[in-house]
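Bug #77: duplicate submission created two jobs. Keeping one. Sequence:
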Amino acid sequence: MKMNLFAILKVAFRALGRNKLRTALTMLGIIIGVSAVIVLVSIGQGAQSMVLDQISNMGSNMIFVMPGNLNFGGASMGMGAASTLTDEDVLAMEREIPTIAAASPGVNASGQLVFGNQNWFVRMQGTNEKFPRIRNWNVEQGEFFTEGDVRSSARVIVLGKTVSDKLFPGLDPIGQTIRVRNLPFRVVGVLAAKGQSMVGQDQDDTAVIPYTTAQRKLLGQQIPSINQAMISAISQEATGVTQNQITVLLRQRHKIPASESDDFFVRNMTDAANTFEQLTTIMTLLLGSIAAISLVVGGIGIMNIMLVSVTERTREIGIRMAVGARPNYVRLQFLMESVALSLMGGLIGVIIGGALAAVVSRVLGWPTLVSALSVLISFAFATAIGVFFGYYPAHKAAALDPIEALRYE
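Kept job's structure:
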């Protein structure tokens, strides 16, 4: 049986080689279809990968808690309308919720940073010593400030890469003293570069200081409050449970009656990641489905050419049957020809599609990701197209009457 299959395949390629131009034009539909599927799906998967990487880049299993939503005269004032969150709330969350790996208060401040004749305006983040762990943000030079610095409201600062390059071009910033709102701060570290966020903001254009320093020495708060809490759950699966436990704990601490709404907001970045993943998956499937139409058109072209081939080779079919060829072998021969057309077109389409995806990424700057799964699905679909659209011509060839076929002119 193996020899028969090999012989049938050999005859199929010989038949396709008789008219190379027609064979090439027939494969063109499959080539275009597979290439389109590879390119469009790679764009969709690239976008999905970029979004998920950006969300992951924000931190480890992140949950944000923001104050606000104060009701005034029956009107909801929205997020950040009131200072309803304190650092004591954050400490209580970390102490009482076992699924929290690390937590930090967050205090926003801004100001002009000055060193010598260099200056740079920056938005600063007041946080605690757990910031690098929560945000997955390593220190490239020097070190991060310590728990003791937070307790003592020390005037120490860790610079983002962009700020460091602006203030200290060609210099080592570690140990240098800069002025922030005319207060001296000692540079203890420089964060590793993170690049742009999803909205195009330079994440490295920042500086980090102890949140207590921001509260007492930059903002001069009489009653300390925080702008947000950054929470890292012990795992991605635990973020939903952690979010619910945070809500229950804060309602208890803030003594909010059951009939009233929360005076805070909890945002789970895992939910955001799942939402983005679903959206980009739908987009990828939509793009792939549109491109698959080209494969169907290519399959119709294969069926038409194979029907023409059956008509042209009617007498040949009659001779084969007359000398003992079974209808199954005739059917298999023509089916192998259509599958060979699809496989060759699919292989060329995969190569062209991968090259076009690289060109799109390089020239247009769009992220693309050619996965092995998309290549396999495209190749399998092209083969299925060959079998589906090649079966009817093959069946028609096998159903020919040998005597009538021999008489065909």
